[in-house]
Amino acid sequence: MLEIRDLECGYGPVSALKGVSLDVGAGELVALIGANGAGKSTTLRAISGLVKPRAGTIRFDGRDITGFDPAQALAAGVAHCPEGRRVFPYMSVADNLAMGAYLRRDPILVGQDLDRVYSDFPRLAERRRQAAGTLSGGEQQMLAIGRALMSRPKLVMFDEPSLGLAPTIVEQTLRIIRGIRDGGATVLLVEQNAFAALEICDYAYLIATGRVVKRGTGADLLADPNVREAYLGG
Ligand code: ATP
């Protein structure tokens, strides 16, 4: 579904990705783990068109999407649930969800998807007219997830979905992400919480200073003594 080869990206003089290659198969949940600043977010930003690659290729669903802008990537079926949630604080919950579907021209299916988001996240249904900025952190995360799903994506990318959430909400959020995979979508998950990510993923890549330094199933990486030492607290 997604094939990244030798991807290089940077910000001005900073080189953030120094030749990343990775694959995500259709229907898989793949995790990217690694320390702060390793290049995980930049990888997602390159896929969704928020940063332009300097070299390398990104193929998605049989097409070359390298250098697509964000609207083109979204139209191709990529949804990005960014770090920090980034809901539109002064817009209602309903309008935030509508923004997720802004490129779609199939109002009947959009309506069905909206009903589904409200039934999956009853708190959002109760608060549909409330300004998104007044929701709790966990509710804003649910809204960001719901908004991403409103584009009917083939690939959903989550950047640090558990950041700043209470432990019970973290568990719930990761269960929802797993459910999105179980529902047939392909998921690419960036998580600071490496242990949780490795437990729920099918496959994982460990990124350090802009390179993939290890790859394997979640179970493989959980059992790896070096990974345990550096990322899982021994
Ligand atoms: P984090 O969990 O902190 O987001 P990350 O693994 O996602 O870490 P990136 O955000 O991809 O890492 O950052 C990779 C490198 O690029 C880091 O050295 C970072 O300082 C740098 N970087 C990221 N965003 C910018 C930016 N907007 N301008 C300049 N440098 C940046």
From TrEMBL:
Q: Which GO terms describe its molecular function?
A: ATP binding; ATP hydrolysis activity; branched-chain amino acid transmembrane transporter activity
Question: Could you tell me which PANTHER family the record lists for this protein?
Answer: HIGH-AFFINITY BRANCHED-CHAIN AMINO ACID TRANSPORT ATP-BINDING PROTEIN LIVF
Q: Which GO biological process categories is it annotated with? A: L-amino acid transport
In which organism is this protein found?
Hansschlegelia quercus
This chain belongs to the protein called ABC transporter ATP-binding protein
The UniProt entry, under InterPro entries, shows:
AAA+_ATPase (IPR003593), ABC_branched_ATPase_LivF/BraG (IPR030660), ABC_transporter-like_ATP-bd (IPR003439), ABC_transporter-like_CS (IPR017871), BCAA_Transport_ATP-bd_LivF (IPR052156), P-loop_NTPase (IPR027417)
Q: Return the similarity comment.
A: Belongs to the ABC transporter superfamily.
Task: Name residues in a coiled coil.
Answer: none
| Superkingdom field | Bacteria
Instruction: State whether keyword NADP applies.
Output: no
Q: Does the keyword Hydrolase apply?
A: no
